[in-house]
């Protein structure tokens, strides 16, 4: 049953995966409206299943306390990062999840190497860390607006023409290092079409309760659409690796994007296959001795073991 479910999920996300080493042309290779023949009316149930599985696996991940998961979400403005996080993580125990949103770097952050601020937010073992924007901004917005690179005050020899190739390599190496230490890196790119972005911006203007989300700067960024698409394509080509592949999630339909994001995360957790720790023979013997002691403490008329009396017929009966 679990195997069958795992296989179905793996098949479902396969078309979204960027084959390591492949050359991506985003506009040609990935359709923002793809929906794998899933009907919207089945969407809510599918998402519920995904959210439930996520909760189950996260509880085991935390109990095992050995692996950690870093979930990176990248998208263009209005791509749906916030909504995806809100829906996909709705069932998990908040104690085991930490969300970090990365904005324009502070003076202190700019005073360090470019991966420094992301390293501060990595997950602990047993945890899931979500990056709402991530270290990939360092090859996206920084690339599209080179003045960001100037602000990083790199020494001359670190700034040459190869700066992006070096960054891709450093990022791949960093993620490989994390993976080899038991921290799985899951990367989702929400792929929005230019027309759907226009519609969502207009909605932010039309609906008063969405006005706060609208920023004129987003519209200025939209003018650089083609530059961003090029930077996305190059990033996906250069940094989808066997240890941390990219998944390009079609984002024009929010309900479908959320199902995909949940499926990718569940798939990763299934691969980790975390288990509740079991106790050895000696510890079990100790548990039995303590149980006897606690059972003997039952007051007159109370069940010797109220839990067992309710859940395991024939055990933990009332004390005579
Ligand atoms: P929202 O959905 O609420 O708009 P957001 O992630 O777009 O969320 P904003 O505060 O609107 O948050 O924007 C953050 C800005 O910070 C983005 O324009 C992003 O490109 C920019 N940014 C992130 N990382 C860097 C970086 N390393 N250097 C320069 N700018 C960055
Ligand atoms: Mg924004």
TrEMBL record:
<keyword id="KW-0808">Transferase</keyword>
<dbReference type="InterPro" id="IPR022488">
    <property type="entry name" value="PPK2-related"/>
</dbReference>
<feature type="region of interest" description="Disordered">
    <location>
        <begin position="291"/>
        <end position="320"/>
    </location>
</feature>
<dbReference type="InterPro" id="IPR027417">
    <property type="entry name" value="P-loop_NTPase"/>
</dbReference>
<dbReference type="GO" id="GO:0016301">
    <property type="term" value="F:kinase activity"/>
</dbReference>
<keyword id="KW-0418">Kinase</keyword>
<dbReference type="InterPro" id="IPR016898">
    <property type="entry name" value="Polyphosphate_phosphotransfera"/>
</dbReference>
<dbReference type="Pfam" id="PF03976">
    <property type="entry name" value="PPK2"/>
</dbReference>
<protein>
    <submittedName>
        <fullName>Polyphosphate kinase 2 family protein</fullName>
    </submittedName>
</protein>
<feature type="compositionally biased region" description="Basic and acidic residues">
    <location>
        <begin position="307"/>
        <end position="320"/>
    </location>
</feature>
<feature type="domain" description="Polyphosphate kinase-2-related">
    <location>
        <begin position="40"/>
        <end position="270"/>
    </location>
</feature>
<dbReference type="InterPro" id="IPR022300">
    <property type="entry name" value="PPK2-rel_1"/>
</dbReference>
């Amino acid at each position: 049953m679990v195997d069958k479910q795992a296989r179905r999920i793996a098949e479902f996300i396969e078309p979204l995966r960027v084959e390591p080493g492949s050359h991506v042309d985003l506009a040609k290779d990935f359709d923002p409206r793809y929906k794998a023949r899933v009907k919207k009316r089945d969407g809510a149930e599918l998402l519920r299943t995904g959210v439930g599985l996520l909760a189950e696996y996260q509880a085991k991940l935390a109990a095992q306390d050995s692996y950690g998961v870093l979930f990176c979400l990248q998208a263009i403005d209005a791509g749906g990062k916030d909504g995806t996080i809100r829906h996909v993580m709705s069932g998990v125990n908040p104690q085991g999840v930490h969300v970090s949103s990365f904005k324009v770097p502070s003076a202190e952050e700019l005073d360090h190497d470019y991966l420094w601020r992301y390293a501060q937010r990595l997950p602990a073992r047993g945890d899931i860390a979500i990056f709402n924007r991530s270290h990939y901004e360092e090859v996206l917005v920084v690339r599209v607006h080179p003045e960001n690179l100037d602000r990083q005050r790199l020494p001359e020899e670190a700034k040459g023409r190869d700066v992006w190739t070096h960054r891709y390599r450093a990022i791949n190496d960093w993620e490989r290092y994390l993976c080899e230490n038991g921290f799985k890196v899951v990367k989702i790119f929400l792929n929005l079409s230019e027309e759907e972005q226009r519609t969502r911006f207009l909605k932010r203007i039309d609906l008063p309760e969405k006005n706060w989300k609208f920023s004129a700067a987003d519209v200025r960024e939209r003018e650089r659409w083609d530059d961003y698409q090029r930077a996305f394509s190059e990033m996906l080509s250069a940094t989808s690796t066997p240890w941390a592949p990219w998944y390009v999630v079609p984002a024009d339909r929010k309900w479908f994007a959320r199902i995909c994001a949940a499926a990718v995360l569940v798939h990763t957790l299934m691969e980790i296959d975390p288990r509740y720790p079991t106790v050895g023979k000696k510890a079990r013997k100790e548990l039995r001795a303590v149980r006897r002691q606690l059972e003997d403490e039952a007051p007159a008329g109370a069940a010797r073991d109220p839990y067992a009396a309710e859940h395991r017929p024939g055990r933990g009966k009332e004390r005579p």
